[in-house]
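thought: fold this chain, then report.
action: predict
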Amino acid sequence: MVQIEAQGLGKRFGRDWIFRDLTRTFQPGSAVALLGPNGSGKSTLLQVLAAYTLPSAGEVRYTLSGRALRPEDVAMQLSLCAPYLELIEELTLAELVRFHTRFRRLRAGLSDAQFIDLLQLPHARHKFIRDFSSGMKQRVKLGLALYAEAPLLLLDEPTTNLDRTGVAWYHEHVAATTAGRLVLVSSNVEEEYAFCQERLTVTDFAPRR
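observation:
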């Protein structure tokens, strides 16, 4: 189980601080919504907490089952769904899942075929990803994140491109996969983070001008 401890955390671009002096512990087994309007720094904070980018001030400490975890090893413990992540469009769905699971196992011994059934995309098993609709691609990205064997789950605007059926699918599978994990959701859409027990508003840590 992963715990993240942010101490005096800040990030700036040029002279402009996005957030500053953020101190908080993100506990295993909790779901936290990172809130704020567009451009407020939600995705940036998520990337800093994921050790994808370095903070400009403060530090982030990670522990895995009570033992210190180096920032460079955090990537092996997380799964991420975000609009800026791309799928390999030259692969079919079956090939993509086979490729992905070479690096990150699916939860609870789930087979590739069972996973594709959970996506409700068995008819598209041999279809190229480039021929998927935007909603189908988003469901694949979500599924790969939700069902990865990883104790840290990061969701950035998770219902992007989903229709009402897709949003219902998201709710169902979030409920089935988040127990015991540390979950961080970057969003300004309430139905994306309604399951989160905790809220953190990024603009509360924006320096006054």
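thought: worth noting. The chain has one domain: 2-205.
final: tokens above.
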